[in-house]
Amino acid sequence: MSQATSPSPAKDSRAPAPPAKSATPAAPKAPPAAAAAVAAAAPIDLKSLEQKLKDSKAIGVMTKLSLKNQVDDLVAQFRAFHSGRQPPTLLQLRQPYELLLMKVLSLVQDQDPNLAKHLHDSRDYIWGVLADRNKFLANL
Question: How far apart are CA 103 and CA 100, in angstroms?
């Protein structure tokens, strides 16, 4: 009687070997979309914001001039605060800051949603720059 040879259960030489397990698991890599989202979440600096507002087609020329005057007035109030004059107090400056920010957001949100998102995401960062004397002087 002849014995038929059956295929051996040995591994196929063409198949790659399974990866060796290490004692510490490898940290998962963030997908490119997540990395881009983190980068996009970075706050916008004041100079970039100013340029983006100038370049935006969502706001007309006359409205841009009006906004510039309002921003200049608010910056002058922060300058007075940082030079030691009171009023205004920091608490008194928060309301005009928020109102101006909301006004700009309402102007750009429909026609320039990326700028609106940047501005919204940078709200606290911008306030931090305006409220901190050293950051204020370094950025304006």
Answer: 5
Render pLDDT for 28-65 as a digit per residue (tens, 0 to 9).
454 555 444 444 567 888 888 889 999 999 999 999 99
DSSP, residue by residue, 27-49: PPPPPHHHHHHHHHTSPPPHHHH
119 Cβ neighbours under 8 A, 6+ residues apart: 44, 49, 101, 104, 105, 108
**What single DSSP character describes residue 104?**
H
pTM over 0.85: no
- The residue among 136, 117, 120, 116 whose CA lies nearest residue 128 is 136
